[in-house]
């Protein structure tokens, strides 16, 4: 098992490293381009922070869209057009809300939370709205992480739009370059965008997006209220942690697993960066160099565990606060408390308010793979659409594999003594093995391989039926 996890980590690092490096390069280019144009402005730090977050998010979005399990995609021209039209316009609003955050923190963060929740809720209307929601959330995430000392400078709204435009340009260019190179190395990735969806594929439940939006809304509202009551000067840490822990979850098991990762990573990153920040005086540009080194390491190691990225982001934010004169070891305990409470709020909301069971998500995605498996083994190989089943199967397999980490972790820490968790982890492993074999069958069909895959398909179906009794 340990050897398998190490091999999987190396594979994730190999696949994700190009996008990780591209995201940091895009962030650096955006930072220095914005700093050059706004070098005589007092609000240059605010603009640079916003640009870095947007550039990182753009490349990360391209990485998700290039992954096999991303699902339906917008045409490339539509995605790029939406970026250049929407993000600068939304950045205008984000700049205005930033002023509100400085004057009335609780109200400002509530205004930031509303569009972030809406970005999740609109997923129920299909992949187009899901992509648009993701795009309009980037400037609000940037406003969320911008320190109040930078917001106090009061950047003009048109400067905010210019910074966003620069960040979108660099992020899009770097994301496109890496995506094109990845497609050349692995042509099946490019085929994913052209593959027609299977008629037998179960449609995603619209209620899942609504429940995720509900979880995020409750988490952010509770974080704002509790943070405003307990530690109003560190309210941003409450809200940011609640958002990070609750974003992109795939069920309550996934939330707990990622929540623990993010809490541990964020806490460790904050401690290390706060202690490191004591080596730099406020305004020392060497702190910014250290910030980008931390972000670079976190981006590369993120492919192995999200804990590294959580550590890098919160550590970088702590260094930025120190650079602006808002840090020091005296606030370390308060920051850690805010991170802990914000993360716990998000976990509790996802686990006890209209929870999405991770086992149900595994069942649904396994049923999708079974439907594709029947089509692969019994379909007409001479039909033009048959070759596209390889890309569909790869996507379905990747979507199952996305669910593996929490169940693998549960199986390891409990030594397999939790029957439902062990059986679910085994089901995922069988599904991934079946999906890999189906892809080989589409590329090179043979009676021997087909017979073996037919047996694996029946065994997987029986395991799925047994799991439904739990």
From TrEMBL:
Residues 223-348 form the Integral membrane bound transporter domain. It is a multi-pass membrane protein. Keywords: Membrane, Transmembrane, Transmembrane helix. The keyword Acyltransferase does not apply. It is found in: Membrane. The chain crosses the membrane at residues 15-37, 43-59, 80-97, 103-122, 134-152, 158-179, 212-229, 263-280, 286-301, 336-356. This is Integral membrane bound transporter domain-containing protein. It comes from Gryllotalpicola kribbensis.
């Amino acid at each position: 098992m340990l050897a398998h996890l190490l091999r999987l980590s190396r594979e994730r690092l190999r696949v994700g490293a190009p996008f990780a490096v591209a995201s940091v390069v895009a962030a650096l280019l955006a930072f220095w381009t914005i700093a050059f144009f706004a070098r005589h402005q007092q609000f240059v730090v605010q603009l640079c922070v916003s640009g870095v977050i947007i550039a990182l998010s753009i490349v990360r979005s391209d990485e998700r869209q290039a992954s096999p399990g991303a699902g339906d995609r917008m045409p490339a021209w539509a995605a790029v057009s939406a970026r250049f039209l929407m993000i600068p316009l939304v950045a205008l609003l984000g700049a205005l809300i930033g002023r509100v955050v400085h004057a009335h923190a609780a109200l400002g963060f509530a205004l930031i939370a509303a569009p972030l929740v809406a970005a999740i809720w609109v997923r129920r209307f299909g992949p187009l709205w899901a992509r648009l929601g993701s795009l309009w959330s980037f400037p609000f995430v940037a406003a969320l992480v911008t320190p109040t000392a930078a917001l106090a400078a009061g950047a003009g709204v048109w400067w905010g739009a210019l910074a966003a435009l620069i960040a979108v340009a660099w992020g899009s260019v770097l994301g496109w370059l890496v995506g094109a190179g990845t497609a050349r190395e692995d042509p099946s990735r490019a085929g994913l965008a052209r593959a027609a969806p299977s008629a037998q594929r179960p449609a995603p439940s619209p209620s899942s997006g609504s429940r995720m939006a509900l979880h995020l809304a409750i988490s952010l509202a509770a974080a704002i209220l509790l943070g405003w009551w307990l530690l109003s000067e560190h309210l941003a840490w409450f809200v940011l942690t609640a958002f990070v822990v609750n974003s992109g979850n795939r069920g309550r098991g996934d939330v707990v697993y990622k929540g623990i990762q993010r809490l541990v990573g964020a806490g460790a990153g904050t401690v290390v960066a706060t202690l490191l920040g004591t080596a730099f005086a406020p305004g020392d540009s060497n702190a910014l160099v250290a910030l980008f080194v931390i972000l670079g390491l976190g981006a590369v190691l993120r492919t192995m565990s999200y804990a590294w990225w959580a550590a890098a982001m919160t550590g970088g934010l702590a260094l930025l606060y120190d650079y602006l004169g808002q840090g020091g070891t005296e606030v370390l305990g308060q920051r850690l408390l805010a991170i802990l409470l914000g993360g716990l709020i998000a976990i509790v909301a996802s686990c006890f308010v209209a929870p999405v069971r991770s086992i149900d998500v595994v069942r649904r995605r396994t049923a999708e793979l079974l439907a594709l498996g029947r089509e692969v083994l019994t379909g007409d190989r001479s039909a033009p659409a048959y070759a596209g089943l390889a890309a569909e199967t790869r996507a379905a397999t990747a979507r199952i594999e996305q669910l593996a980490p929490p169940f693998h972790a549960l199986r390891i820490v409990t030594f397999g003594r939790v029957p439902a968790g062990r059986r679910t982890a085994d089901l995922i492993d069988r599904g991934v093995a079946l999906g890999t074999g189906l892809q080989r069958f589409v590329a090179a069909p043979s009676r021997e391989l087909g017979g073996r895959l037919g047996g694996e398909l029946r065994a997987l179906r029986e395991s799925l039926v047994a799991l439904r009794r739990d």
